[in-house]
Amino acid sequence: MRLGQQVWSREIGAHGPIVLATGIWLLWRKWGSMTAEAHPGNPILTFVGVVVSLSLYVFGRAYDFISVEALGLYGFGMSVLNDRFGIKVMLANWFPLFYLGMLLPVPGWAIDKFTAPLKLLVTTMATGLVEPLGIPIVQEGVTMTVGPYQLLVEDACSGLNSLIGLIAITLFYIYLLRNASWRYSAFLVLLIVPVAIAANVLRILILINLTYFFGDAVGQGFLHVTAGLFLFAISLSLMFAIDSVISRVLLRARRAK
Rounded to two decimals, what is the model's pTM? Predict the structure, then answer.
């Protein structure tokens, strides 16, 4: 409930409900085989995990650190699963557990640290693409002056928001639909970074044009959010298209051999 109130209601955590639902479904699919192979885990490991996790949860809840609080809850869940199934069974069915770990919110200090270079990168790229179009634009760091309007590239346009959601859903796609090697899976995950950056550059270009030609109210209104959702869908579709093309090329190469 607190994740829903503090994180999932913001753009950076919008993927949370999707990850929660699909993660529970993945775990449910494995539940029967895990139960059949279950060997109760080491009670000492379970006890230590419960104590540490509950301590983190209480500390995070008391001082309103949602990242620490969620980590404590996640650790408690892993401890309970270890008590029931054992560490070997958990390692054999690691993906659903790892996937649910992507529900943990990124701490604010990490967002500030990693979005700074991304914000500057997408701002510079967007400015370079707009200038040849004749639109008057001046860049100062992550701030752009477009005609009479001033635009600030915030965290939502830096690429990190799309990056987290794209990684989660792409991993789900790879695990569910592709019996791929770890090398190919890692290759697809690495592609997420340039795809997310390109999508956010396109998003900024759309917002620049909306603001310049239709005014600040239009650029920062409903279409601002719509552009983000639309481009997230485009990024996801692009990832699936790249996977489809590359997998066909690899399949043809194998048949040729």
Answer: 0.74
